[in-house]
Amino acid sequence: MSTAQGTEVGSDQDQVGILERTDEDAWDAFVQHCPEATFFHRAGWRRILEQRLGHRSYYLYSERAGTITGVLPLGQVKSLLFGNALISVPFCVYGGVAAQDQQAADSLTAAARALAEDLQVDYLELRHRERRNPDWPCKDELYVTFRKPIDPDSEKNLQAIPRKQRAMVRKGIKNGLQSARDPDVERFFRIYADSVHRLGTPVFPKGYLQALRDEFGTDCDVTTVTKDGEPVSSVLSFYFREEVLPYYGGGTTAARALAGFDFLYWEVMRRACEQGYRWFDYGRSKRGTGSFSFKKNWGFEPQPLYYEYHLVRAKQVPEINPLNPKYRLFIAGWKRLPLVVANRLGPWLARRIG
């Protein structure tokens, strides 16, 4: 595959090319109607990866008789700390092949493998919600997703929450918490940066978070919860087809006692329901973590995610996650950094994790 010129490769029936700016509308039209596609397959993520996070992208599409039959967005993340990887999609919980049939999927997968070999990356990682390549090494026990239909009636959604968790939502209401949509990421970023610092995680650049709002417009918003006018918790959410996906969230040290997290996610669900959305996607969690337990307490059943790997230079599947003992000392040390230092260093590091 000659990626520099975007030379087409594939079978006689399916040609695989690299997305050009002028073809983004056709790409997004396919994503909008393909059942396998997700919010993270949208072409706007390419600009985010390249312009805000500084990574090279290769957005592959298959075409048959002049019509797009599948897409595979790829980003290359290179780091001295974490290696050199080709991922679909970096910084996103879902990705991988989205195709109308197996022929298109096979063409895209073959092209991605060829690209990974040409680039001599450590590995190719495809983030699927279903097993696609059973002969590839796979992580299917570490990450899960939580997705559930929501009823058109808000009260029915409240009653569907298990009793103990529903009591926490009501506690937030009794505590006088209020929610509002924010026009920018200012309040969100302050809360989020402090929250991830306490977890020992580098924070993303504020410009990246604002760029998500600017790129996706009304399909990306911020909900912030306050107590007597003081911010308590906040979340940045995505909207795609009939789904709402609360994606980046955080809370102050007071949030837990006030049921600020519980009230926050209920408000996102309630507002989405009233706007006609019919699926709530709680996103990715690692088994054995607090976020996993929190989401399960809402009555959501964990569904495995299949992160599949084609190894190129790497000898084994990477273990870049906080549960890896190798990174626990780093996490403990990061928590001890002054917040102002963590906020200065964090964006440089976070954009290299992927």
Automatic annotation (TrEMBL):
<dbReference type="Pfam" id="PF13480">
    <property type="entry name" value="Acetyltransf_6"/>
</dbReference>
<dbReference type="InterPro" id="IPR038740">
    <property type="entry name" value="BioF2-like_GNAT_dom"/>
</dbReference>
<dbReference type="InterPro" id="IPR016181">
    <property type="entry name" value="Acyl_CoA_acyltransferase"/>
</dbReference>
<dbReference type="InterPro" id="IPR017469">
    <property type="entry name" value="PEP-CTERM_FemAB-rel"/>
</dbReference>
<protein>
    <submittedName>
        <fullName>Peptidoglycan bridge formation protein FemAB</fullName>
    </submittedName>
</protein>
<dbReference type="InterPro" id="IPR050644">
    <property type="entry name" value="PG_Glycine_Bridge_Synth"/>
</dbReference>
<feature type="domain" description="BioF2-like acetyltransferase">
    <location>
        <begin position="163"/>
        <end position="295"/>
    </location>
</feature>
